[in-house]
Design a protein that fits this description.
13% helix; single chain; 21-stranded antiparallel β-sheet; Porin; 21 strands; DUF5723; mainly beta
Length: 457
C-alpha cells in the first residue's frame, strides 16, 4: 500500500504548479511583461532575449497538503501520515501546473507609437482535482460508506504540452493610454482531458447480505492525444513531442489583449485577458466514454492482499456489465483563460533626477505601491489570487519589488523580484514564498522566474 501511494503522490507532485506571475506583472518594463500584458508600456528601441534563457518559469503549489506531510522523517509511519492527509483534504482541493521556457523572444520599435514583439515558447499546463472521496473509498473500502454517493464530477483533469508562436503589437495612443494585442498559434504535442463528468457510485446492503453497487446517471469521458498508437498501445516518445511542438499535427489559434492607463502622473491601472483560444487535437487520438445506469453485486472495495485476484475480478465484472465506447475522432480543447487587473501609485520624487530631461514620469519616482487581481478559468470554475506589492528603485540600474499574495494555496505568500541593468543587458529574477525557501517540502506554494535580455533604449 505504501509503495502504491508514494508512486501516486510523486506522480502528481510533478503536476502541482501554479500559473500566476504576480511578481513580474507590470514590473520594471521587463520585455517578458508583454506576455502578461500586451498593453504594457515599453521604453526601449528593441530587445533580444538570450535564446532559452530569456524567460524560464516554474512554480509549485498544492492545496490541502504538502510533500512534507507525507514524507517528512519524523518517526510517524506512512499509513498514519496518509490517513491524516486524506482527512484534512477538502472536496475543492486541487493541483495546478504551468511552466514555460522561452526559446526566442525579440521586439522592435516600428515608429513613435508602435512596438512589435515576436517569439516562441514551450509550455506545460495541467490541472488535477484531488478526488478526496475516491481516495477514501480506496483507503477504507466501501463498508464505512454504505448509502453514500461518490460523485464522478469530482474527477477532473486536464494536461497539455505545447509550443506557442506569437506576435504582438503594442501601441502608445497618447501619454496616458497604451494598448496591445497578441496573436498566438498553438501547436499541441500531448493532451489528456477528462472534465464535465457526471453520475454517482453508491454501495448498499442487498437483501442477500451482499453489497449492491449502483452507477447512476453515469457519463464519464476521457480524451487523449499523443499517448497511444493505432494498436491502442501506450506510445509516448521524445520524438513525438519534439515533432509536434512546433507547427505539428495539432494546431490552434488564440489571442491576448491588454492596456495600461495613466490616471495622473502618479497613478495608473492596467488589465489583460490572456489565452483566448483553443487547440484542435487529431494526432494519435484515443477517446473513451462510459454512459448509463448499472447495478452489480458481490464485489467489495478492499485494498489489501487477502484476495490476489481482486482487481482482475473487479475489472472482469465491470467490463461485463459496463460497455465502454472508444473512438479516434479529433476534438478541441480551450486554453485556460486568464485575467489580470492591476493598479499602482508612484511616489517619492527623486531629487537627483528632478532636473534631468527626456524622462518619462515614472523615472521621477523611486517608490510605488499597488495591487493585482489574477484569475484563471479551470475545469472547476475560476480561481482567484489577490496580490499587494511595494516597489523600490535604488537607481536606474537596480529595481526591486516585494509582494504579498493570498490565493487557494497560501495566505502568507511573500515574493521578491529584482531587475538589474548592466550596460544593455537586463537580468531579472523573481521568487515566490521566500519565507519557505529553506523548507520547500513543507510549503504549499513556491515559484521562480528568471531571464536575460539585451535591451537598447
Amino acid at each position: 500500500m505504501k509503495k502504491i501511494f508514494i508512486l501516486f503522490f510523486l506522480t502528481f507532485s510533478g503536476l502541482i504548479f501554479a500559473q500566476n506571475k504576480q511578481v513580474l506583472y507590470g514590473f520594471d518594463n521587463i520585455p517578458q511583461g508583454l506576455l502578461l500584458n500586451p498593453g504594457a508600456k515599453t521604453d526601449y528601441k528593441y530587445h533580444v532575449g538570450v535564446p532559452v534563457l530569456s524567460g524560464i518559469s516554474a512554480s509549485v503549489s498544492t492545496s490541502g497538503f504538502t510533500i512534507a506531510d507525507l514524507f517528512r522523517e519524523d518517526n510517524v509511519d506512512f499509513t498514519t501520515k496518509f490517513n491524516n492527509v486524506i482527512n484534512n483534504l477538502d472536496n475543492n482541493d486541487y493541483a495546478y501546473i504551468n511552466s514555460q521556457v522561452e526559446v526566442i523572444n525579440a521586439g522592435y520599435k516600428l515608429n513613435k507609437r508602435d512596438y512589435l514583439s515576436v517569439g516562441y515558447y514551450t509550455e506545460f499546463d495541467a490541472f488535477l482535482k484531488i478526488p478526496k472521496e475516491f481516495l477514501e473509498l480506496i483507503k477504507d473500502g466501501n463498508a464505512p460508506f454504505i448509502n453514500r454517493n461518490f460523485l464522478f464530477s469530482n474527477l477532473a483533469t486536464k494536461a497539455d504540452v505545447l509550443g506557442v508562436i506569437h506576435a504582438g503589437i503594442t501601441r502608445k495612443f497618447n501619454e496616458k493610454f497604451t494598448a496591445g494585442a497578441r496573436l498566438k498559434i498553438y501547436s499541441g504535442a500531448l493532451n489528456v482531458t477528462s472534465t464535465g463528468n457526471t453520475g454517482s457510485f453508491t454501495t448498499r446492503l442487498g437483501t442477500t447480505s451482499l453489497y449492491q453497487h449502483s452507477l447512476t446517471n453515469l457519463n464519464v469521458n476521457a480524451y487523449s492525444s499523443g499517448l497511444y498508437n493505432e494498436n491502442d498501445e501506450f506510445d509516448l516518445t521524445a520524438d513525438d513531442i519534439t515533432g509536434n511542438i512546433f507547427l505539428g499535427s495539432n494546431l490552434g489559434l488564440g489571442f491576448d489583449i491588454g492596456f495600461t492607463y495613466a490616471i495622473d502622473d502618479q497613478t495608473e491601472i492596467s488589465a489583460s485577458l490572456l489565452d483566448v483560444g483553443f487547440i484542435s487535437y487529431s494526432n494519435k487520438v484515443r477517446n473513451g466514454n462510459v454512459e448509463g445506469d448499472y447495478t452489480f453485486s458481490g464485489i467489495e472495495f478492499l485494498f489489501d492482499n487477502s484476495n490476489p485476484d481482486y482487481w482482475r475480478n473487479l475489472n472482469d465484472e465491470i467490463n461485463a456489465r459496463i460497455p465502454r465506447n472508444e473512438n479516434r475522432e479529433s476534438y478541441a480543447v480551450m486554453r485556460p483563460l486568464k485575467l489580470n487587473f492591476g493598479g499602482r501609485y508612484s511616489f517619492g520624487k527623486s531629487r537627483r533626477e528632478e532636473n534631468c530631461s527626456d524622462m518619462t514620469y515614472n523615472d521621477y519616482y523611486d517608490n510605488a505601491l499597488g495591487g493585482q487581481i489574477f484569475s484563471v478559468l479551470t475545469p472547476i470554475g475560476p480561481r482567484f489570487a489577490l496580490t499587494g506589492f511595494y516597489e523600490r528603485k535604488f537607481s536606474k540600474r537596480l529595481n526591486t519589488r516585494i509582494t504579498y499574495t493570498v490565493d487557494d494555496f497560501s495566505n502568507s505568500n511573500i515574493g521578491l523580484g529584482i531587475s538589474a541593468n548592466i550596460w544593455k543587458i537586463n537580468v531579472y529574477t523573481a521568487v515566490d514564498n521566500v519565507l519557505q525557501l529553506t523548507d520547500l517540502a513543507a510549503s504549499n506554494s513556491a515559484s521562480f522566474q528568471f531571464g536575460i535580455n539585451f535591451i537598447s533604449r
